[in-house]
Design brief:
Number of domains of chain A: 1
Number of strands of chain A: 6
Structural class of chain B: alpha+beta
Largest interface: A-B, 18 and 15 residues
Distance between the termini of chain B: 60 Å
Number of strands of chain B: 12
Strand order of the largest sheet of chain B: 2-1-5-4-3
CATH topology of the largest domain in chain B: Four Helix Bundle (Hemerythrin (Met), subunit A)
InterPro entries (chain B): CHASE3, HATPase_C_sf, HATPase_dom, His_kinase_dom, HisK_dim/P_dom, HisK_dim/P_sf, PAS, PAS-like_dom_sf
CATH architecture of chain A: 3-Layer(aba) Sandwich
Largest sheet of chain B: 5 strands, antiparallel
Radius of gyration of chain A: 14 Å
CATH class of chain A: Alpha Beta
Order of helices and strands of chain B: HHHHHEEHHHEEEHHHEHHEEHEHEHEE
Keywords (chain B): Coiled coil, Kinase, Membrane, Phosphoprotein, Transferase, Transmembrane, Transmembrane helix
Helix content of chain B: 55-70%
Shape of chain B: rod-shaped
Strand content of chain B: 5-15%
Number of helices of chain A: 7
Largest sheet of chain A: 6 strands, parallel
Distance between the termini of chain A: 30 Å
Protein name (chain B): histidine kinase
Oligomer: heterodimer
Strand content of chain A: 15-25%
Catalytic activity (chain B): ATP + protein L-histidine = ADP + protein N-phospho-L-histidine
CATH superfamily of chain A: Response regulator
CATH topology of chain A: Rossmann fold
Strand order of the largest sheet of chain A: 2-1-3-4-5-6
Helix content of chain A: 40-55%
EC number (chain B): 2.7.13.3
Chain lengths: ~150, ~600
């Protein structure tokens, strides 16, 4: 587990090692003051979250296609627990299928990000999402604004 | 017409016939009594004539006798009186005959009695005269006196007989007159009888003719109906049967026999004989349905198989229902329909359907592979490219940098191709939900999505008032994305791209060219640009899969965009056309049917 000692706490659950690396590299290059915790799959993530003493993250980046607990499974579990009601969940997936977008929207994710194919774009996305005014975004949320595009 | 109608009505005719027969009987009996009366009159006249004849004979015998006596008296010749006893016998005979003739007439009979006494008296006088004439001691005086008395009695007798004869002849004349009358009456009656009988005969004959004619016509009609029914059954592969529930008697139509693979009337129509022709696996079921229905009198419907003698299996749809025939008996009528070809087609269709479903799942799997599994590594390649470009490009030679940029372009092209492939396969997929779609709203969304691209090209896009159409929203969006992207891509380098999307009325020429029955059947939306255009001869080719007109690398493309457009418009039962000329832009015409045509 790689952690950054910062004020803002970000989680990423993704089974793809390269993607995890891209993500942490992007965060590093952005030089933002935040703490990033990485999980290699859904089970890992949920095991971490059940600990009552942990400090709750601000944003959780959640991949959908993972072995064990899938992104959707995690999303459902998290949203069924009021303890995590203030955690913003950003779906982070290669898929841009309508079904996945609708399902995660219905299950209570806050934003849907299609994994970019350019590193600079990735940095842009992370910057935007981490600095997002979640309250403002969530109050005006609909299926069109749910799908994030730069 | 009315009379003809009455004539045709058998009931009325029967009543008329009965009346006529009664009348004929009455006239016949009248005729019979008349004849009988005539007969008795004739008899009466004959008797009267006989009586007269006999009386005349009597008179003549007596006259003869008197003449003979006188001749004897004068000549004293014995020969004159030789046969006097003979004459006496003759008279007795006549009297007996007369008595017999007048046995029914008392008065006349009495007259005959009196006549006999007169005759007796006369003969007594004859004998006295004869004796006087023979006696030698008698004088002529006494003889004269006797002769006088004799002739007196004779006269008396003669006048009596004449009286009787006269009376008889009067009677005869009267009877004769009567007879004439009666004869005339009888003739009239007989004539009437004949005429009436003839009339009845004629009427009956005519009626019979009419009836036979009608019967024949009805028969012909029935034959024709039967024949056409038979032909119809043969052509349509039907066969029917009937059973009288009461008598359990079956009848089969010709074609039913044929359905079973045998010649018409090949066997006695009954259940037992049909059993060998029903597929053994279906026999129990068929028998149960049939026998149950004969108890419940409920209609039946089943599918079973006939097994023909040459081993063919025929699928039969059998329906049966109950009705009452003319005499009120309960009848079950069944129709058997050969559905073998339909059944086989259905099986084939089911098989095809299975295959199609399988292909569909395959396609979906392929779609998944393309959209996710293939994009995933590609995306990573792109990511690594961007990482290398960002961090390590300083370490590369200019040649290496060029190669590297080519790798990036190629990877990007591959990504576009994958996206287009996904889009195309999505247009083929089955789940097409049609909803009212506001095209203006769709275009608005697209313009937002394509905003960067539009800004880059500094394009001017005008949108007219577009209709709301029942359509598949994501496909409509895809359609216009592709069309607008297409116009942007093929814009001229040194002039501002202008794109307009408007709704237009269908022209007469279009109606003719595209065989549109009614102008109001279709929406027509025109996407026009001022780009590089192309030769009109390519107008059909550009909608084909992987067909690209431009080979210049600056116009990158997958050859899928317009194929997707064509596919989407087809999904909406419409069609897409294009008009273009090199350097004068292109106009795409999208025709989408309204309402029910979808």
């Amino acid at each position: 587990m790689i952690t950054h000692q910062d004020s803002m706490h970000i989680l990423l659950a993704d089974d793809d090692e390269d993607d995890r690396n891209f993500f942490s590299e992007a965060i590093q290059e952005l030089r933002m003051n935040n703490k990033l915790t990485l999980f290699k799959d859904g089970n890992d993530l949920m095991d971490y979250l059940v600990h009552p003493e942990i400090k709750l993250p601000h944003v959780l980046f959640l991949d959908l296609n993972m072995p064990g607990k899938t992104g959707i499974d995690c999303l459902k579990e998290i949203r069924s627990n009021t303890r995590f009601k203030d955690v913003s969940i950003a779906i982070y997936s290669t898929s841009s299928s309508e079904k996945d977008i609708e399902d995660t929207f219905v299950e209570g994710a806050n934003i849907y990000i299609k994994k970019p194919n350019d590193f600079s774009k990735l940095k842009e996305v992370i910057k935007e999402v981490v600095n997002m005014n979640w309250q403002f975004h969530t109050s005006g949320l609909n299926i069109e604004t749910f799908f994030f595009s730069i | 017409m009315k009379i003809l109608g009455l004539y045709k009505n058998s009931q009325v005719f029967k009543i008329a016939l009965a009346i006529a027969i009664v009348v004929v009987c009455y006239i016949a009996s009248m005729f019979y009594s008349q004849m009988k009366k005539l007969d008795s009159t004739v008899e009466l006249i004959a008797k009267s004539n006989d009586t007269q004849l006999e009386l005349e004979k009597l008179l003549s015998v007596i006259s003869n006798y008197e003449t003979s006596l006188r001749s004897y008296i004068i000549t004293k010749d014995e020969t004159y009186i030789e046969d006097r006893f003979l004459s006496r016998g003759k008279i007795e005979e006549s009297i007996t005959k007369l008595k017999l003739l007048t046995v029914n007439d008392t008065a006349r009979n009495n007259d005959i009695g009196r006549l006999k006494k007169l005759i007796d008296l006369r003969f007594k006088l004859f004998r006295k005269t004869l004796l006087l004439a023979k006696s030698k001691n008698s004088g002529p005086l006494a003889l004269n006196e006797m002769l006088l008395e004799s002739s007196h009695v004779t006269e008396m007798m003669k006048s009596f007989v004449t009286k009787i004869i006269f009376s008889e002849s009067t009677k005869t004349e009267f009877e004769n007159n009567n007879h004439q009358f009666e004869l005339q009456d009888s003739i009239i009656t007989a004539f009437l009888l004949v005429i009436l009988s003839l009339l009845i005969l004629l009427l009956s004959f005519q009626k019979m003719n009419v009836d036979i004619d009608e019967l024949k016509k009805a028969n012909d009609q029935l034959k024709l109906v039967n024949e056409s029914y038979n032909t119809a059954e043969m052509t349509a592969g039907f066969g029917h049967w009937m059973v009288n529930v009461g008598t359990n008697k079956y009848t089969f139509s010709d074609n039913l026999f044929r359905l079973m693979g045998v010649e018409p009337n090949a066997f006695e129509p009954n259940i037992e004989n049909v059993i060998p022709y029903i597929h053994p696996d279906d026999l129990e079921y068929v028998a149960k349905v049939h026998t149950d229905s004969l108890v419940s009198h409920q209609s039946t419907s089943m599918i079973f198989r006939f097994l023909t003698p040459n081993g063919d299996v025929k699928y039969i749809m059998g329906v049966g229902s109950f009705t009452k025939n003319g005499s009120g008996d309960l009848i079950k009528i069944g129709v058997n329909y050969d559905i073998t070809s339909q059944y086989k087609k259905t099986l084939e269709l089911e098989e095809n359907n299975k295959e199609l479903k399988y292909i569909n799942t395959e396609l979906e799997a392929f779609n998944n592979i393309v959209s996710h599994d293939l994009q995933e590594p590609l995306r990573k390649i792109q990511m690594f490219i961007s990482r290398l470009e960002g961090k390590e490009s300083d370490l590369l030679s200019s040649q290496g940098k060029e190669y590297f940029s080519k790798i990036r372009v190629t990877a990007n092209r591959m990504q576009t191709l994958l996206i287009d492939l996904v889009n195309y396969s999505r247009t083929i997929k089955g789940d097409k939900v049609f909803v009212e779609t506001n095209f203006n709203k769709v275009i608005e969304e697209i313009l937002q999505d394509l905003a960067t691209n539009i800004e880059d090209k500094k394009a001017i896009i005008t949108i007219g008032n577009l209709p709301t159409i029942k359509a598949i929203p994501f496909q409509v969006k895809q359609l216009f994305i592709n069309l607008i992207s297409n116009s942007l891509k093929y814009s001229k380098e040194n002039s501002t791209p202008e794109i307009s999307i408007t709704s237009k009325k269908i022209t007469e020429k279009e109606m003719h060219d595209y065989k549109i029955a009614n102008k109001k059947d279709y929406h027509k939306i025109v996407i026009a640009d001022n780009g590089i255009g192309f030769k009109q001869e390519y107008s059909d080719k550009i909608f084909l899969l992987f067909k690209r007109l431009e080979t210049d690398p600056k116009y990158s493309g997958t050859g899928l965009g317009l194929a997707i457009c064509s596919r989407i418009v087809e999904n909406h039962k419409g069609f897409i056309k294009v008009k273009s000329k090199p350097n004068f832009g292109a106009k795409f015409y999208v025709f989408i049917p309204k309402g029910d045509l979808l």
